[in-house]
Design brief:
The complex is a heterodimer. Chain A is of the alpha/beta class. Chain A has 25 helices and 27 strands. Chain A folds into three domains: 191 residues, 3-Layer(aba) Sandwich (Rossmann fold); 171 residues, Dimethylsulfoxide Reductase, domain 2 (3-Layer(aba) Sandwich); 132 residues, Barwin-like endoglucanases (Beta Barrel), CATH 2.40.40.20. A seven-stranded mixed β-sheet of chain A has the order 5-4-17-16-15-6-7. In chain A, strands 22-26-23-25-24-27 form a six-stranded mixed barrel. A four-stranded parallel β-sheet of chain A has the order 11-10-9-13, sandwiched between helices. Chain B is built from five helices and ten strands. Chain B has one domain: Alpha-Beta Plaits (2-Layer Sandwich), CATH 3.30.70. The chains are: A alpha/beta, B alpha+beta. At the A-B interface, β3, α2, α8, α9 and α23 of A face α1 and β4 of B.
Chain lengths: 704, 150
């Protein structure tokens, strides 16, 4: 039988809308939702079919029988596996209290279910991957605008100029956003790109700054200086909505374009010419404040500077600028119900909220658990449940993490794939792929907000379950039915939709329900109430930061240069892989089976290597090495070595990715403790590694 | 008469290699063969900005295809609209077509040993749809061009 369903892609966390065709329970076609993306889908999206058919993913619950990480498993039934997890959780709760259980997941629209589960269990310790992603940007936005990083979205299509600091958007592949940017460029818009290396995004740019690693903040300060000097800012907007402008003026006085040019290794005249362009293009200039800005010890301040530039442009809540994402209430509609449970009033185990009062409690900061786990302060952590999150691939120094994890009585991995954490854990609960599972309805905020959901396109190929089934089953075993009362997904959908007046039939036509016919903008004159800062205005100088002992306007400090024989490790994305989780996908591994090391031709000459020769990358303490091919180019900064993130896996059941390439995380020895004190993000680019020509380049032939 | 060709708007192409995967999944091909290809020249600084030239290549569906007459089983066929395709029933996998083609376009499918190549997804075209590479191109950079006699 032929079937067509609208759903949401699950190959990466962009979650593009898709339409899936199947025949007799076999997928025949996946495309981007024609109503939203005109069919467009990336390689990863199409490779979903290979994820589904891959027999190198867990096919039934697995319980560890050997030592942790040894890879010895026995197959278990779901009943046994769920009883095992629930039993252990109940025993830990009994002995150590519910707070000794941590649950981590990826962020995103479905995290509320995982959060509700752990809160209902009695633990405040929900966390996610954001310490290695958007936390610095989030806290930067909160400190200035009073709203988090998702408090603004970007109307790129109608902008005249988009400025990206190291945000390689054409490799990150948010398809709708990519369309917007290309449409803007087609209309004659400008794209300025700043990075330590050249990327696909850079090849579409109209202006490119290849900066010294760790100097984004300096460039932004130089631009702010020149913008103010030339008067290219919105005086009315500043007067009406912004405090701290005078302090900013005094602060940036010394940060001239000439100074910035020297720090960044770019030309002063290019900075000046750039400011002339934005002077002409404003207010429709968008400075993207960063996505993954967990990079340098001043990334929080770099992000603040980008936010400040948006404020100076006066581009808030307008066509071709930043806008506040709207929800059901803004469209005069009732919102959906969501699974929810209040957070227990117990100190967090990562120190957020009490040891670090300046961070938003929300998901806390995952990397800060480890030192607290080691010292058992404020209490011991005895279980870690990783919900499609791989701490060992996402955060630095997995061996250091393992020391803390070893203090746990229970490590659970819920995932469609084997993850590095999963391989080390005590039990793997295999989740169905996104093509085989339903999920609850979510609201997608925007200028035209929508309700959308993921639908099962085919039945599970193996003995796997959807995450809602897993959490509901665990909840029922642990007496948490109050938070998880439903038994079927249909019951859950009906309960969610009840206040809205919509029914599931309303999703049939397009796969989503649009809550507004035309873009919703707020009255710009009444914007003040939107900024949730203490003063109700945009605050360039934040008293909250001052109180926490951090300056709002921090003087720039030049980044450290690598020692002899070492380079700064920079990692990033490629268009055909999603961080760690697609490296073993049969179709995607065929496109890119391993990563390489980008090295500047000057360094390559010194090492006596050419493109294709093998390089050895070693961690600072020489406890981890990997050998990869060199990609010799002038398009990476001479202080840096670049590699694509997610490789260097050591999971034998994933034969295609096993030991392929180098893992950036494993090179980051001791870096769990190197994080941005003001923003909370991990400093993923504050890592120096040894780079030398590999001994394995021999041309001699010994074998017959 | 050749009726179709595929055009790449290289201003919109981001070399994401989506088309290659869309194509081979639609044709249900295993690891190994690709029927179309995206290639980028090494980066070069032009006007202060690094540039690359991106090219999409697949079967040219020649007006006078060399692969058709060499096929010993008449499996390689040119349709009236110019599409050159392989009748999988007749193909014996001798790969004479690959040797005859100046660009070695036909490739062998390791699953059944038969030759396989781009046929502009003619089943889709005939159903009023676009070829897979075009229909799902991530940035709508690939376009189907219908040629007309002027």
């Amino acid at each position: 039988m032929k079937k067509s369903v609208y759903s949401i892609c699950g190959m990466c966390t962009v979650r593009c809308p898709i339409r899936v065709e199947s025949e007799d329970n076999k997928i025949t076609w996946i495309e981007g939702n024609p109503h939203l993306l005109g069919g467009a889908l990336c390689a990863k999206g199409t490779a979903g079919i290979a994820l589904l058919n891959d027999d190198e993913r867990p096919q039934q619950p697995l319980i560890r029988v050997g030592a942790r990480g040894a890879g010895r498993w026995r197959e278990a039934s779901w009943d046994e596996a769920l009883d095992y997890v629930a039993g252990k959780l109940a025993a830990i709760k009994e002995q150590y209290g519910p707070e000794s259980v941590v649950l981590s997941s990826r962020g995103g629209p479905w995290q509320q279910m995982y959060k509700a589960f752990i809160h209902a269990f009695g633990s405040p310790n929900y966390t996610n991957h954001d310490c290695t992603c958007g936390r610095n940007t989030h806290h930067a936005s909160l400190s200035i605008n009073g709203v988090g990083r998702k408090g603004f979205a970007y109307d790129i299509k109608n902008a005249k100029h988009l400025v990206l600091f190291g945000r390689d958007m054409f490799s990150a592949l948010r398809i709708a956003e990519n369309h917007q940017t290309l449409d803007m460029l087609d209309k004659g818009g400008r794209l300025t790109y700043v990075d330590v290396r050249q990327t696909t995004t850079g090849t579409k740019a109209t202006r490119f700054f290849q900066v010294r690693p760790g100097t984004d903040y300096a460039l932004a300060l130089g631009v702010i200086h020149q913008v103010i000097k030339k008067g290219y800012y919105d005086k009315d907007f500043l007067e009406q909505f912004v405090t701290g402008f005078d302090e900013l003026c005094t602060f940036v006085e010394e940060y001239t374009p000439a100074w910035a040019a020297k720090e960044c290794g770019v030309k002063e005249k290019d900075i000046i010419a750039f400011v002339e362009e934005i002077g002409a293009d404003r207010p429709n200039v968008i400075f993207h404040p960063g996505w993954n800005l967990a990079r340098y010890s001043d990334s929080f301040y770099a992000s603040r500077a980008m936010h400040i530039l948006n404020v100076l442009m006066g581009n808030i809540e307008m066509k071709g600028g930043l806008f506040i994402p709207k929800g059901a209430g803004d469209c005069g509609k009732k919102g959906i119900r969501s699974i929810d449970c209040a957070k227990p009033d117990i100190k967090r185990g990562d120190g957020v909220g009490w040891e670090y009062p300046h961070f938003e409690k929300g998901p806390g900061l995952a990397h800060l658990f480890f030192k607290h786990m080691m010292s058992e302060d404020p209490y011991p952590i005895k279980a870690w449940i990783a919900m499609r999150h791989d701490p060992f691939s996402g955060m630095p120094d997995p061996e250091q993490q393992k020391l803390a994890m070893d203090k746990c009585d229970l490590l659970v991995s819920i995932d469609t794939n084997y993850s590095e954490f999963g391989w080390y854990s005590d039990i793997i609960l295999p989740e169905s792929t996104y093509l085989e599972r339903d999920n609850f309805i979510v609201q997608q905020k925007g200028l035209k907000p929508r309700l959308a959901l993921r639908r099962r396109a085919v039945d599970p190929k193996y003995d796997t379950k959807a995450s809602w089934e897993i959490f509901t089953a665990l909840a029922h075993r642990l007496g948490l039915e109050e938070t998880f009362p439903f038994k079927t997904i249909e019951e859950l959908w009906a309960w969610q939709l009840e206040p809205t007046g919509y029914t599931m039939a309303d999703f049939e036509e397009k796969g989503y329900v649009e809550l507004a016919d035309s873009p919703v903008f707020y009255d710009r004159e009444k914007l003040a109430s939107q900024f949730k800062t203490p003063s109700g205005k945009i605050e360039l100088v934040s008293e909250k930061l001052t109180k926490a002992g951090f300056p709002s306007l921090k003087p720039f400090e030049s980044p450290q240069a690598p020692e002899k024989g070492m380079l700064r490790l920079i990692s990033g994305k490629v268009a055909v892989h999603t961080q760690g989780h697609t490296i073993n996908n049969p179709l995607l591994s065929e496109l890119m089976p391993t990563n390489t090391a980008w090295i500047h031709s000057k360094n390559a000459k010194k090492l006596g290597i050419e493109s294709g020769d093998l390089l050895e990358l070693s961690s600072a303490d020489k406890s981890y090495h990997a050998t990869v091919a060199a990609h010799v180019t002038d398009h990476v900064h001479p202080e840096a070595v670049f590699t694509a993130h997610g490789f260097g896996k050591e999971i034998p059941r994933q034969t295609r990715s096993f030991l392929a390439g180098v893992s950036d995380q494993k090179l980051m020895i001791g870096k769990l403790d190197d994080w941005d004190q003001a923003g909370g993000g991990v400093n993923l680019c504050q890592v120096f590694v040894y780079v030398k020509k590999s001994i394995r380049n021999t041309k001699r032939r010994i074998a017959l | 008469m050749k009726k179709y060709m595929i055009h790449l708007n290289s201003k919109r192409c981001i070399a994401c290699h989506g088309c290659e995967v869309h194509c081979k999944v639609n044709k249900n091909l295993p690891v190994g063969p690709f029927l179309c290809d995206i290639s980028s020249t090494p980066l070069k600084m032009i006007g202060g900005v690094p540039r690359t030239e991106i090219t999409f290549s697949t079967c040219r569906h020649c007006d006078d295809p060399l692969c058709v007459p060499v096929c010993p089983t008449n499996a390689m066929i040119q349709r009236a609209d110019g599409i050159v395709y392989i009748d999988q029933e007749k193909c014996i996998g001798c790969m004479a077509c690959q040797k005859a083609c100046p660009w070695s376009i036909p490739v062998q499918n390791p699953d059944d040993g038969k030759a396989v190549k781009c046929d502009f997804c003619m089943d889709r075209l005939d159903a009023g749809l676009k070829p897979a590479c075009i229909a799902k191109c991530t940035t709508h950079a690939l376009q189907l061009v219908a040629l007309e006699v002027v």
